[in-house]
Design brief:
This protein is of the alpha/beta class and about 375 residues long. The protein has helices at about 1-15, 50-65, 90-95, 115-125, 135-140, 140-150, 180-190, 200-205, 240, 260-265, 285-300, 315-320, and strands at about 30-35, 35-45, 75, 100-105, 125-130, 155-160, 165-170, 195-200, 225, 250-255, 270-275, 305-310, 325-335, 345, 365-370, 370-375. The protein has a nine-stranded mixed beta sheet, sandwiched between helices. Helix 3 runs parallel beside helix 4.
Length: about 375
């Protein structure tokens, strides 16, 4: 059992290397062991490419020959797939490899797998060991599991604020609160997201581009989402001007003016109208929650796994009150701007008792230039 933990831990480390490249697939790592020695390693490198088990089998055969996997043990962080998708089923390759034992961290809750892969291998005579470092495997693939089990993306809230807890001055000016080194981290974070979302006021006030601008290659190009109920954005804004190069989804209310919608569509923006139960007034908490629920379902249908939210206070407040924020990345700058009308970070109703305050699991705190960078997952669930 001690060796099982050792080899599974290595498989989890390998799986992590696929972060940002494999979504909406899970991150998976695989280690092949024979007579106590590692003979093959692999991980799922990119969506649509061979899975971790196939990469490990190729690695073993390239290094040790075709018969090297006879009698070996396969350590894999997720149950092998048993269906044809972008690639053939891994169960078939494992059966033909001569592997005699499978050790898995967790079953795949995907309805097309969910125990079928292990049953196929068990019926073929392989020894099955389950639940080795399962908690760690579930932690690694929390975004994938959230998409499958809660039917919404994993939501990451990111903001930069002053030492007195403000997103912007009373006039709405916010460029720049954090330093250049902090902004590079934000671009790296964006570069592994499926989507980035902001509210209309943030889009109108800051005129952001919301792209990952780095010298190195980033894993993916996230779709940019703006909650713009009245279709207030125009062709003068960077998001609209770059919509044909990088996708933009504008979420509007069902009664937004058609002529404004046409302008956005003609610029290359995709429009998503969401119904509002209250057509006279959109500014009710019930409407915000209703539209947010509808949007989350839509994004889940599009397989948006990791969603980065960059503000502002109304959007953060709705997500906070609905307990939808899973992870935070916060940059605190050593600056003070003051003013009761300066922009706070989180609006909404908020909590009534300090003992209800959300806590971070094990926050990582770094000094980035002059900024303090705090990031971690939320423990409120």
């Amino acid at each position: 059992m001690e060796n099982d933990i050792q080899f599974m831990r290595l498989a989890l480390e390998l799986a992590k290397r696929g972060e940002g490249f494999v979504e909406p697939n899970p991150m998976v790592g695989c280690v092949l062991v024979k007579n106590g020695n590692i003979i093959g390693k692999g991980f799922h490198t990119k969506f649509g490419e061979p899975h971790a088990e196939i990469e490990a089998l190729r690695n073993a055969k390239n290094c040790y020959g075709e018969e090297s996997t006879d009698g070996a043990t396969c350590y894999v962080t997720l149950e092998p797939c048993s269906h044809y998708g972008k690639t053939p089923p891994c169960t078939s390759a494992i059966q033909h490899s001569g592997i005699k034992r499978i050790v898995v961290a967790m079953r795949d809750p995907n309805p097309v797998v969910n125990g079928r892969g292990l049953q196929i291998l068990s019926d073929a005579g392989l020894e099955i060991t389950e639940h080795v470092l399962e908690e760690e495997a579930r932690f690694l693939n929390a975004p994938y599991l959230t998409l499958l089990e809660k039917h919404r993306p994993w939501i990451i809230a990111k903001w930069a604020m002053t030492l007195d807890g403000r997103l912007a001055t009373r006039t709405g000016n916010s460029q720049w609160i954090s330093g250049e080194a902090s902004r590079k981290i934000v671009h790296r974070l964006r570069g592994r997201m499926d989507a980035i979302m902001i509210g209309a006021q943030t889009a109108l006030r800051d005129n952001p581009e919301l792209t990952a601008r780095l010298d190195e290659v980033v894993p993916r190009t996230p779709i940019r989402i703006v909650l713009d109920s009245k279709a207030a954005l125009t062709s003068e804004y960077q998001l609209v001007q770059t919509a044909r190069q990088t996708p933009v989804l504008i979420v509007v209310n069902s009664n937004a003016l058609e002529k404004k919608i046409k302008i956005l569509q003609n610029s290359g923006c995709e429009i998503l109208p969401l119904l509002s139960e209250n057509t006279k007034s959109e500014n009710t908490e019930h409407d915000y929650r209703n539209r947010t629920e509808l949007l989350m379902k839509h994004l889940a249908q599009r397989k948006i796994t990791n969603l980065l939210v960059e503000g502002g206070k109304q959007l953060f407040g709705t997500l906070f009150d609905m307990q939808l924020i899973d992870e935070v990345h916060v940059f605190i700058a050593p600056k003070l701007i003051g003013g009761e009308s300066a922009y706070p970070v989180i609006g909404g109703t908020g909590l009534s008792e300090m003992q209800q305050a959300w806590k971070l699991e094990s926050p990582e705190i770094q000094i980035i230039g002059q900024d303090i960078y705090i990031h971690d997952r939320i423990l409120h669930k």
